[in-house]
Amino acid sequence: MNFERIQNSNDAYLAENYARLPVAPIGGKGATIEGADGKTYVDFGSGISVNNFGVNDEEWKNAVKAQLDKIAHVSNYYYSEPQGRLAELLCEKTGAKRVFFGNSGAEANECAFKAARKYSYEKYGAGRYKIVTLRGSFHGRTLFTLTATGQDAFHRYFDPFVPGVDYAEANMSDVRRVADETTCAVVVECVQGEGGVKALDPAFLKALERFCKERDILLVCDEVQCGNGRTGKLYAYEHYGISPDVVTTAKGLGGGLPIGACLFFGKTEHVLKAGDHGSTFGGNPVVCAGAYNILSRLTDEFLLEVQGKSEYMRAKLRGTDGVREVSGLGLMIGLTVDGDSKEIARKCLERGLLVLTAHEKVRLLPPLTITKAETDEGLTILREVLKK
Ligand SMILES: *Cc1c(COP(=O)(O)O)cnc(C)c1O
User: Fold this and answer.
1) Is the pLDDT score of 27 beyond 90?
2) Which of 139, 189, 249 to mutate to test the pocket of ligand 1 (most atoms within 8 A of CB)?
3) Which of 296, 316, 350 is a domain's end point?
4) Per-residue pLDDT at 1
5) What is the pLDDT of residues 231-245, one digit of tens each?
6) Residue 65 lies in a domain
7) What is the pTM of this model?
8) What does the alpha-carbon distance between residue 350 and residue 385 come to, in Å, rounded to a whole number?
């Protein structure tokens, strides 16, 4: 089907909640995407940090196909081999004790918020329910996770919101003001993605960890976007030397199929009991088999390569005309640019490069496996676009 027909059907029949750019990816290899228009594109977006091993990754496809040939769905009435294997590997690699699987980042966070309220209820009784999140954060689109998202722009039209959520600036004096005796959890993205690719201040996160430990407030790290190798560590909190009580992740963990995971550490190990939470598709065997393959390849050696690629790209970007500031961590890169970020993304697309935006910034989340040749090709296009 040619691009115009795809575009027409999308515009005519899909809900109008996305502002789509004029390209329809239909295939490709690694960080090179093939469009229905017959053109190829360098991918600096990886489907918002989902295709971390690029597209059409053979190993991942083989893992998925092998499971598809056995059984594609098992209800959570029963035991599951792929779920067990993946949960075991997640725990081995992070020190977590137990894992809940859902289908998305929002569901991983929803689980974390419910678990935090239950943890607090069981220990301290009713009334200790408040979830504190940061201004500029993004935690999802369900009503609870949207409420938790600390950006007013997302909140229009949808009130009344879930009660018991409040926002703090990313500094301790504001956290102290907002996080009172009714608070059960503080939620942070160590590197805010949608909010503008901002790495949080290490001193703030260390102080926040201490603050939470002293009050038995759960520290929840939302690693949906910054996790799974994106920043050059398996999870971004590792850069900060902090020990969260709960970690949520999704996007890159599935290698292209939908998954969300909520990891429970130490004191939250036994919070969820039979009947407290669930998901029909959560922990789907095909998805988990793929995710196991992805996670098993995020080795220390691989992560060092990601760090090297990040240094290479950042050095080049810092010397690029029209780039005023380079933010983020690892291959999660934000560019403060001269000019409108959305317009720049459009111009990059016209020249064969896919980039993302986060408010006024251009956001680059290339596949972690991107080659030097693909990187250079993309950077050349970006340089041309930014020059004028
Ligand atoms: C994308 C994202 C989410 C929501 O994930 P979905 O899979 O879209 O529900 C939550 N938190 C962060 C930090 C994200 O980047």
Assistant:
1) yes
2) 139
3) 296
4) 73
5) 999 999 999 999 999
6) no
7) 0.98
8) 10
